[in-house]
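Components:
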Amino acid sequence: MTARIQAPSTAKRGEVIEVRIAIQHTMETGFRVDEAGRPIPKNVVNKLVCRYNGTEVFRAEMGSGVSANPYLDFFTVADASGELVFDWIDDEGTTGSERVTLTVS
Amino acid sequence: MNTPDNSHRRSFIGRMLALCAWPSIAARAADVPSDSAETMIVKLTGGKIVSEGRVKLELPLLADNGNSVSLKVSVDSPMTPADYVKSIHLYGPKNPRPNIANFYLGPRAGRAQVTTRVRLGGTQRVMAVAALSDGSFWSGTADVAVTVSACWDAS
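Structure:
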């Protein structure tokens, strides 16, 4: 699973920064059927965690009500230089991870 | 009198009926366990009062396609270690699974605002409930008219 993250690479200490992530995922609802009429099992990215230098700053629990290729836009306070690490998992247990570095002056 | 034949035929008919019913039962089982949005909110708050206000939910008035509707939720909060938003919960009462998403924030968020894209199964009043650090619950709603529902289409 690939993801695209948009976050500033530099920030002033104490600045509130905007972080955006879009994960490539079908977010299968479990309500659809395939060509043969068999139900397609539900498979959504059910959990995403964002950690800033190891501390959780944002967590999302998602269901089938979140659109395909889930997009999340949230905020965090830039308090130290380091890494923002994103980890997510879907119903089938497939995990994904992505990270961005941030320099705080 | 041909009783054995009759019973055989009956059990055969019974089996055929069961066979017809089976796929629909299987299909229905997938969407039965969902509680209503109201029940989910009561479970979330533990029966505490949810006050209206402080939560701003922004959705388009009209969504042409229920498969992807942009949603922005923000909560009026200073987001300090003493007073912050713990979590935000989104509900679409007409969705087959009403609990769309839950977001967990903290004082380190700086600003209690999340934007995402949701699926809506029909015209409805979407609701956001915020749990604050002082134990209070606040809510905001937005009415959305959905032209094409996200659900039940075979696309």
